[in-house]
């Protein structure tokens, strides 16, 4: 039974990222085919503006910080009402929180450099 749990853990830990990458690839391929078909019919398709590096950093900062705060809050609620050892799990929310704060710092530095250069 212990070997089965380990096998399932390995399969899931490798399967989810592979599934996500395959889904991303299929969606990109479908969008490209859709755009090519529309261009072949002569439909004018506006180009989607590419996000700047600062906008991407800000987006990832918001997502990581809010996700980690939500995760830590969920573990705090579990620790308060059900399992006191869940505080250990809540501590792992500090990792994405720190990465999100790093993205906010990156966004601030990019914005400051843009203001200095202009």
Q: Can you tag this structure with a few keywords?
A:
118 residues, 2 domains
Give the low-confidence spans.
none
Tell how many strands the DSSP assignment holds.
0
Count of alpha/pi helices: 4
The rough form would be described as flat
Our measurement of the CA-to-CA distance between the termini, rounded to an integer number of angstroms, reads 64 Å
SSE order = HHHH
- Largest sheet, if any? none
Mean pLDDT: 85
| Fraction in beta strands | under 5%
* Domain tally: 2
Question: Could you provide a short overview of the structure?
Answer:
It contains 4 helices and no strands. It is an all-alpha fold and 118 residues long.
Describe, in plain words, how this protein is organized in 3D.
The chain is mostly helical and 118 residues long. It has two domains: 1-48; 51-118. Helix content is 83%, strand content 0%. It is built from four helices and no strands. It has helices at 2-40, 53-81, 86-91, 94-117. The radius of gyration is 21 Å and the shape is flat. The mean pLDDT is 85.
How does the SSE layout of this entry go?
Blueprint: H1 2-40, H2 53-81, H3 86-91, H4 94-117
Helix pairs in contact: 2-4
């Amino acid at each position: 039974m212990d070997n089965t749990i380990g096998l399932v853990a390995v399969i899931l830990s490798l399967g989810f990222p592979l599934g996500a990458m395959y889904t991303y690839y299929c969606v990109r391929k479908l969008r490209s085919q859709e755009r090519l078909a529309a261009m072949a019919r002569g439909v004018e398709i506006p180009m989607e503006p590419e996000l700047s590096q600062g906008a991407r950093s800000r987006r990832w900062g918001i997502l990581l910080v809010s996700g980690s705060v939500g995760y830590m809050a969920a573990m705090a609620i579990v620790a308060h009402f059900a399992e006191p050892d869940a505080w250990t799990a809540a501590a792992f929310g500090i990792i994405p929180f720190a990465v999100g704060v790093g993205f906010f710092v990156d966004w601030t530095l990019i914005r400051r450099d843009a203001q200095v250069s202009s």
